[in-house]
From TrEMBL:
Record-given protein name: NAD_binding_1 domain-containing protein
InterPro entries: FAD-bd_FR_type, FNR_nucleotide-bd, OxRdtase_FAD/NAD-bd, Riboflavin_synthase-like_b-brl
PANTHER family for this protein: F9L1.8 PROTEIN, PTHR47215
Domain annotation FAD-binding FR-type: ranges: 26-131
Molecular-function annotations in GO: oxidoreductase activity
Any Pfam family matching the protein: NAD_binding_1
Length: 265
């Protein structure tokens, strides 16, 4: 075996061992499912009972955090943003998720389970949305929120955690989906609007009866814009990559600070 081949073999062995070690350091907590209900077309509301895992509950401190969920019958874990606000786990002992069922994935298997089935959860991960960058509300009266598909999941946590929306003059949520059947949390829109958030649904493939915004979220925002003071504007983005990149470009071009464009991953 040549020196180069020996080196490559040794490097591959070390890399594999290091990867295995990293995987072994993940702490997994077994927890039963409380709810698996369809929330919209291809989207499922999943609730996990974490009432017997106080350390896991305490680690969820911010909207926008996520974790890994694994199943014994699945090869790979699934990364899921936590949809419920931290206070819900503290009071009810539940983590809630909005899960998109993708064929052949761990998420598809999860959406096929039922109450009482046991899953495994990793530690809560990520810094979440750094809301300090758009505080206090009087200095950031405009907050623009953008989400597509299951990306609305951490946005629900954000809105229901509270970020003083009622103390700001212009808080808008642009929420994109293919059609109304694929738009989750519609039953929560009224409550969200009462908290100070204006909902702007955007459908990419609406039927003839739809009178609202159509096309893509970034195009709908570009048409509306109405940013009165870029320096006093913050934004929160979550969803399809092209949408987040294009919206961020529009905001920065209009004078919004890149530091005040918040993402959860």
């Amino acid at each position: 075996m040549s020196i180069l081949r020996r080196f490559n073999h040794r490097f591959s062995t070390v890399a594999a061992a290091a990867a295995a070690l990293r995987q072994d350091t993940t702490v997994w907590t077994r927890a039963p499912l409380s709810t698996v209900d369809q929330a919209a077309e291809s989207l499922f509301h999943v609730s996990v009972d974490v009432s017997y895992s106080p350390n896991l509950v305490a680690s969820h401190t911010r909207a926008g955090q996520y974790l890994q969920l694994r199943l014994t019958d699945a090869e790979k874990p699934s990364f899921l943003a936590i949809a419920s606000p931290p206070a819900l786990a503290a009071s009810n002992g539940a983590f809630e998720f909005l899960v998109k069922s993708v064929s052949g994935s761990t998420a598809e298997l999860l959406c096929g389970l039922k109450k009482g089935d046991v899953v495994e959860l990793s530690q809560v991960m990520g810094r979440g949305f750094d809301l300090e960058k758009i505080e206090p509300p009087q200095d950031h009266p405009t907050v623009l929120i953008f989400a597509t598909g299951s990306g609305i999941s951490p946005i629900r946590s954000l809105i229901e955690s509270g970020f003083s929306a009622d103390k700001r003059s212009d808080v808008r949520l642009y929420y994109g989906a293919r059609n109304l059947k694929r738009m989750a949390y519609q039953d929560r829109f009224k409550d969200w609007e009462s908290s100070g958030v204006k909902i702007v649904p955007v459908l990419s493939q609406p039927d003839d009866s739809w009178k609202g915004e159509s096309g893509y979220v970034q195009a709908a925002f570009a048409r509306a814009k109405q940013i009165y003071s870029p320096k006093a504007t913050g934004a929160v983005l979550c969803g399809q990559k092209q949408m987040t990149e294009e919206v961020a470009s529009i905001l920065v071009a209009d004078g919004v600070s890149n530091e005040k464009i918040l993402k959860n991953f």
